[in-house]
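To close the chapter, one final illustration. This time we ask the reader to focus less on the individual chains and more on the assembly as a whole: which components sit near each other, and how the overall shape emerges from the parts.
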Amino acid sequence: MAELVFWFVAAITIISAGFVVLNNQLIYSAVALLFTLFGVAGIYVFLWADFIAGIQILVYVGGILVLVIFGIMLTNKIKSVRISHKSMQQGVGGAVALWLFIFLSLALSKAPWAISAAVEPSGTVREIGILLLIDYLLPFEIISLLLLGALIGAAVLSRGDA
Amino acid sequence: MHSLDSYLFISAMLFCLGVFGVMTRRNAIAVLMGVELILNAANINFVAFSKFNGMNLDGHIFGLFVIVLAAAEAAVALAIIINIYNNLNSINVDDAAELRQ
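The assembled structure is written out below.
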């Protein structure tokens, strides 16, 4: 049963990612991106990463996707229902992407990964909190500064010349 | 349960679709969506290696930082895209080829 659910989630992720890059209408791409992000959150659940899955839904689906849809709405004429856009050189791009995929799958199936087994933890939030505030305190503070910089930068950029 | 290879395989597929999107799309927001796919693929790898390396949570921390960086990147990129649209009335990435005003 879990096997079936896993491949179902993986198929949803990959197929909607295909829609994101192939569909000609921008809004449809954004909606397909929603399903891809939910599918990736499901894969995190299968990887025992409950906290990362929650953050994925909060930040990606609740934040970044809404930003992207705002961006689409602000940079097109709303009155035209059909917000379409062209793709270029799909043949060359497809060939390069396919070559890259074959290369990557050959490499990852041949590589001797050092795997060590683990038991499923009851939750990861506590350990992540301890790691963030002890081992990774400096990167944590730096990334909060970076977020502040991105916040101010985005506000200044989009306000214009005022 | 599933092996490490199946997760890496899914992530490689997502990565190649993202690369394809970045290469073929000409709308700046669609290029941004391709970049998001690539970041998600990398994140799946981080979390998968973390699980199969004896549930070592360092990979989860890396995943969190990637998500935070993606949020900052999306905010700044959309501000730049809206500025380009105001100046050029188009968000085709081939039109934005000049540095001067």
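Chain A touches chain B through 83 residues (CB under 8 Å). The radius of gyration of chain A is 20 Å. With these observations in hand, you are ready for the problems at the end of the chapter.
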